[in-house]
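Protocol step 4 of 6.
Sequence for Bacterial virulence factor lipase N-terminal/Alpha/beta hydrolase family (Shewanella psychrophila) entered exactly as in the expression construct, tag removed. Do not edit the line below.
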Amino acid sequence: MKTKFLAPYASALIGSLLVAGCGSEENVSQAPISVYVPFSINALPIPNDGYGFDSDHTIAFPVENQVEGVDRENFYRSSDTVYAALDGWGLCVEPIRIPIASIDADERYPLDSASLVNNIMLIDAASAKAVPAEITASGEEIKIACQQALNSESRYFLAVSDRVKTQFGEPLMADASFTSLLSRDEDDLSETELLIKQQITLATEAYQQASGQGNVIYGAQFTTQSVYPILDSIIEHDASASLGELTKINDARKYDTYQTSLTMPYYLPFTKEDEASCLVDEFDPITACPDLYRWMKPESGGEHLTKTNTLPQSTSLDVVADIHSPTDWDGKQPLPVVLFIHGVTADKNAASLMVKDYVDQGFLVAAIDMPYHGERIMYDREGNEISAQVDKANFINIASPLTLRGNLTQAVSDNLSLRYALNKVSWTDPTNVHLVGHSLGGIVSVMVSEMSQQVEALHFNTVNFVVPGQGLVNLTLTSDTLGEETEQAIKQSPDIQRGIAETLVPQSCQPSDSNETCILSLREFESVSEHNQITVSALEEDIYALLLPDFKQGIQASTDSADPANFVQRQNMAMQPTLLIEAVGNCNASCEVGEYLPDFVVPNSSPDNVMTGTDPLVTALNLGVIRGSVIDESGTGLRVMIRATVGGHGTYLFPYEGPMDEEGKPGIPDTEILDEVWNATDTQQVAVASMVISDGGEVMINNLDNIE
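Step 5 output, structure tokens:
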């Protein structure tokens, strides 16, 4: 988001509110209204290969070549224009949206839903078949929600026909510009116009081949971005990772803890050396700490990582790795290893909560901190902490989507560096290594597992994902825990607050004034009266609603190459032994006080996107549900999931979530309930441990009351 877009939005919204307050129902037309798909060569609906591609294989976006310096960086940070940094379009993890508009009317009416089926198609160019999708329409857009992620580096077509009807029975119409383009002689077209016309023709032919009926009134071709090439190059480069000498730091009654230094490649641009030039500033955070909002750049030069420029610049980084062991281990005997990945705001110490079942069976448990977590927190020049614990946005950096992509990529790289390094020491059994990830660690683990499949040195005997999810942008926004926090962070962002200030207090917020001056003036305006507070709050709500669809689509597209939704093919093909735990609660249609809620952090599903949450990830991984103990009879290892009913998101590690309280949230368990949730924690830990210790041959459920 950029400030220059927000002030006009605020002004327009205030005008709309005033008109709505003074208006009359007499202005509402009762006559049938014609509806069309807006089309312009200079502002094509997204996704669309009509934009073309630059010489670096990124999407050629309008005015990209006209911006330089800081403005250019902001151009790539904006969710509206970040596509210019990508080597292809999104993979439909967020729904595809095609705009519609009324002809000579302000009213908006939804299309006839019965007319959408088979008359709007997303077509796979390789198979010439329609992609399974849920298609809906409001008065402003057609929405195509895919049932699974599209293939990367693949060509697709969109087609909408005049068999689609308005609620008045009128056919959906083509834009005059669309019709004109198709009717003009090719000799009269510019190179861009000719390219777009050819793509529309291909989309029309694909629609007809897929048995589509009627005349195509909107068609487009788009090519999806690459997913694997960048991480493949990173993983190859990570083979240099190594571990130092073991140092015992703790003798405990149940296990010992050692530490060692993991030396590995570090690809993020914000390093310890940059702390001196960074200042945490609520009014102008990017200007005050620019490296925190920058992203991975190619080692060989250029601005963006693409399928033809895959390896990012890197430095060498030493991080502390914790190694938990049996109490009688001598630090020399080779032992099997469980690699544990923690969740957001946690750290590697979380491994201590699940370690006992493994050390008792002669395993080591290894863990490192993710970027901005634990011992890897950063500080600005005044000593202010920059960590996920202080602000989740330091890791989940939606203010700079390419940075968010990089943070996730680095987390995957770090743990595969650790996996590489475990092969090089004498005190591990490199043929017996397992993966366990919880929450964000479960999300990262899905991608770690995927990227391990084609490198023998990275092999995991089993992978275990506890409460993971996919579709990370909408997942965050629809999370009962993270959603409100993220929404408020967007509404309170300096860009939106300044945009409102330029509209409501223009005398105190001129273009030459700083963000701090403008935002403090707005806060003073709010403090004057409750009416002013309501006005500002209403504008925040309306601007947020206006920006959200494009915001989600742009950020998700830029993070598709770091989202579990797009990292399942290799592990599915390899039949990787897998156990997944989903927290489903024990509510029925609705939850009542005293019942256990579904996952309150990572939603199992989302009402506005079938690609969001744990459920679609389970489907993508092709996992079977088990409802009791099970033993593998195939000889290839189990690929299953458990639906846990007692506790919640964190129960695998600690029983802090009780049944729903009067506020509709997970309550704090009292003494009686605590025993029940402790039992659920034990059930989940025993299930994962049995999967690991049996090498994927068995999952033991010790209490059926804790699963569905």
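Step 6, annotate. Residues 1-11, 17-28 have pLDDT under 50 and may be disordered.
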